[in-house]
Design a protein that fits this description.
Helix content: over 70%
Oligomer: single chain
Distance between the termini: 10 Å
Radius of gyration: 19 Å
Structural class: mainly alpha
Number of helices: 4
Shape: elongated
Number of strands: 0
């Protein structure tokens, strides 16, 4: 297998497995809470963005012995992703919910000039991001342990 493809897979596979593990966990939690299942929903426990990103960060950290510019770049990327999930996206989702309430209050339901409600894209709470990070560390570590068998 060409070296470039192997390197891409070493990043893409932990990310994909982190996403799958977090989404599977989310689906189980939604089933227990009797919420409708949506494989591509945003928000909720755990953060799939954080899980997939931290899986890559963990894999790179272990592979690079927590040294080097690639690890530093991955770490910053992971921190920005987690920060965005529990701050920027969470606040944007809350603002969008408030705007939709204001639209309902300002316009009659049959008003032809009533704007469409905005799509609410929920962010994550700190506990949701932390659980996503734990899943990411576990997935990244497991992938590092088995990658020798995959790419042998």
């Amino acid at each position: 297998m060409p070296a470039l493809i192997v390197e891409i897979l070493r990043i893409a596979l932990p990310m994909a497995f982190g996403w799958i593990a977090a989404q599977a966990t989310k689906m189980i939690i939604f089933a227990i809470q009797k919420k409708p299942l949506d494989l591509f929903c945003s928000g909720g426990m755990p953060s799939t963005h954080t899980a997939s990103t931290i899986a890559v960060v963990t894999h790179i950290a272990i592979t690079e012995n927590f040294k080097g510019s690639i690890f530093a770049l991955a770490l910053v990327f992971g921190i920005v992703t987690a920060f965005d999930a529990c701050n920027v996206r969470l606040q944007c989702g809350r603002v969008t919910e408030k705007v939709n309430v204001l639209i309902d209050k300002a316009f009659a339901s049959d008003d032809p000039e009533k704007p469409e409600k905005l799509k609410v894209i929920k962010g994550h709470t700190i506990p949701e991001v932390l659980v996503g990070a734990v899943i990411g560390v576990a997935v990244g570590t497991v992938f590092w342990l088995i990658e020798g068998k995959i790419f042998a």
